[in-house]
Specification:
The complex is a heterodimer of chains A (about 110) and B (about 425). Chain A contains five helices and three strands. With about 110 residues, chain A is an alpha+beta fold. Chain A has a single domain, classed as Winged helix-like DNA-binding domain superfamily/Winged helix DNA-binding domain (Arc Repressor Mutant, subunit A). In chain A, a hairpin with a 2-residue loop joins strand 2 (about 60-70) and strand 3 (about 70-80). Chain A starts with a helix and ends in a 9-residue tail after the last helix. Chain B is mainly alpha-helical. Chain B folds into three domains: about 5-75; about 75-225, no CATH class; about 230-420. In chain B, helix 5 (about 75-105) packs antiparallel against helix 6 and helix 11 (about 270-300) packs antiparallel against helix 13. Chain B is rod-shaped, with a radius of gyration of 39 Å.
């Protein structure tokens, strides 16, 4: 399991990246997708996910649309234009960060991002 | 894939409802999330109640409340900063203005800087930030924001404050800005405000008082326009014009006496006597011409001012009125589409008179003549002496300039007579 502290700073990056690849997603779908991609190593709690989603929406990086499914409402999120460029920017920033941290900690990360 | 029945969803909804969330957007989302989770567990073979038990811990200990708090904290970050900024500015800007006003009253240096800074903060920073915060507040109460109202308000307010600032600083364009702001208020802001107030049933008292405030503010604004020049300044200007008239009358009679005495004196050369009487006649002619001009301006100002013109053509300003009117001076001096102005003719006579005096005067008087009958503008590139003296000036200021001219030509005649005789 990855610790919460480590995840906190990258949560937005993860959400933006997922939305860039998946057109539109709802909250539960995002947690499932993260779990699938990390083989269960990263579990997003809803307490972390929803504040982040709403923050991204208020910053106009993502927009939302609601769909009624029977008695419940599902809220889908998708990237805005500025969100698309922010996603690219954030991912690049994060790769830089990991590369630099790899050098600092000198563990020779088994990362092959390039 | 399992799908929850309406009844099961209702149970979950009630559970979340118990947490007392106020941010309904979030509540709906959390319900869907919970449903999905339970459905997934049911797919693994659990019954609804067992699945619910497994996720129930997430609803305990106010956890959901905490999520809401964190969400609101995050999305309101900018708003809270803006609000703080607004409060700080709202304190600083008026303080600067008040301190600036005190400095201005005491004629201490730095008043202008304070006033300009305070007005700039108020118009260009506080006003837009206030509109943004207020719009956000309205939106938060789930009400529609009347963007046009805010936009019109901010633009009108900005132009109005700028106009006031320019007026205080005596910068050009103040009149235009104030006129535009009044027009915008009447033609744009008030109609939008009225329509808005009629639609908005909830805040009727608030909207009504804003409307009353704007209307009375406008009335004050228009009154300020009408006043233009304060009464004290006007009456002191009248005194100074009267003094000019009195002194030039005294000079005139003394000049006449000097010339009369010289005529009796047989030792003087007839040549010099001729020159002296030519100068005297010319001065009288110019003096009368200026007097007629003053009478024209007085009459153009108001028909009642006929009282101020005596039978012999001389002028008694204590019987005149309407001293702060601008248009009459401009009409007489510069004319309009129908009549031509007399300003050019005045300049021409003054120049002829100057040449005549210079031809007779010795070196001692030359300098004084040039200085006294100086009719070039102070800033020759921008304005002529005429526009500088008579454009945009109240009637009494024109009276002062003209009586001052009379005084000067009488004085110069006296000096020249001394030299000649």
């Amino acid at each position: 399991m990855i610790s919460k502290d480590l995840l906190k700073g990258t949560l937005k990056t993860i959400v933006l990246k997922l939305l860039e690849e998946n057109d539109r997603m709802y909250g539960y779908e995002i947690t499932r997708e993260v779990e699938r991609l990390t083989e269960g190593k990263v579990k997003l709690s809803w307490g972390a996910l929803y504040p982040a989603l709403h923050k991204l929406e208020s910053d106009h990086l993502i927009t939302s649309e609601e769909e009624s499914i029977g008695k419940r409402v599902r809220k889908y999120y998708r990237l805005t234009e500025s969100g698309t460029s922010a996603a690219k920017e954030k991912v690049r920033e994060f790769i830089d960060f990991v590369t630099i941290m790899g050098r600092v900690l000198d563990t020779g990360p088994s990362l092959n991002l390039a | 894939m399992a799908e929850l029945s309406d009844r099961e969803i209702e149970i979950l909804n009630r559970e979340i409802d118990k947490q007392g969330l106020t941010y309904t957007q979030l509540q709906k989302e959390l319900l869907d999330h919970l449903c999905c989770d339970i459905e997934a567990k049911m797919d693994e073979g659990l019954e609804f109640l067992n699945a619910f038990e497994e996720v129930q811990s997430r609803l305990e200990n106010n956890r959901i409340q905490e999520i809401q708090e964190e969400t609101l904290l995050l999305i309101n970050q900018k708003y809270r900063m803006m609000k703080k900024f607004m409060y700080i500015l709202g304190t600083i800007a008026p303080s600067l203005l008040i301190i600036g006003a005190i400095f201005k009253l005491q004629h201490w240096p730095g008043a202008s800087v304070l006033i300009v800074l305070g007005s700039f903060m108020l118009a260009a920073v506080y006003l837009p930030v206030f509109a943004m915060v207020s719009m956000r507040d309205t939106r938060k109460r789930e009400k529609k924001v009347n963007k046009t109202l805010y936009l019109a308000g901010v633009i009108t307010g900005f132009i109005f404050i700028t106009g006031i600032l320019f007026k205080i600083m005596h910068w050009p364009g103040a009149g235009v800005a104030l006129t535009v702001s009044v027009l915008l208020t009447v033609a744009v802001f008030i109609p939008i405000l009225v329509v808005h107030a009629l639609k908005d049933k909830e805040n009727q008292v608030q909207n009504f008082s804003i409307l009353i405030f704007v209307l009375s503010f406008m009335a004050v604004n228009i009154m300020v326009f009408a006043l233009k020049v304060s009464k004290n300044v006007l009456s002191s200007m009248v005194v100074s014009a009267k003094v000019n008239i009195k002194t030039s009358n005294m000079l005139e009679s003394s000049n006449t006496l000097v010339l009369k005495a010289a005529n009796m004196d047989s030792t003087l050369s007839p040549d010099r006597l001729d020159q002296a009487s030519i100068i005297h006649e010319q001065t009288e002619a110019l003096n009368d011409y200026i007097q007629e001009l003053m009478a024209d301006i007085l009459l153009a100002t108001h028909e009642d001012n006929r009282m101020a013109i005596k039978d012999d053509g001389s002028i008694d300003l204590s019987k005149a009125n309407y001293f702060d009117v601008h248009k009459s001076t401009e009409l007489v001096i510069f004319g309009n589409e129908l009549t031509s102005g007399q300003g050019e003719a005045l300049v021409k006579s003054l120049e002829t008179h100057k040449e005549l005096l210079m031809a007779q005067a010795g070196a001692r008087l030359d300098g004084i003549i040039i200085e006294m009958l100086h009719i070039d503008g102070q800033y020759p590139d921008e304005a002529t002496w005429l526009t500088e003296t008579f454009r945009q000036t109240p009637m009494i200021a024109a009276m002062i300039s003209l009586t001052n001219l009379q005084f000067k030509i009488q004085f110069l005649e006296g000096e020249l007579l001394k030299e000649l005789l």
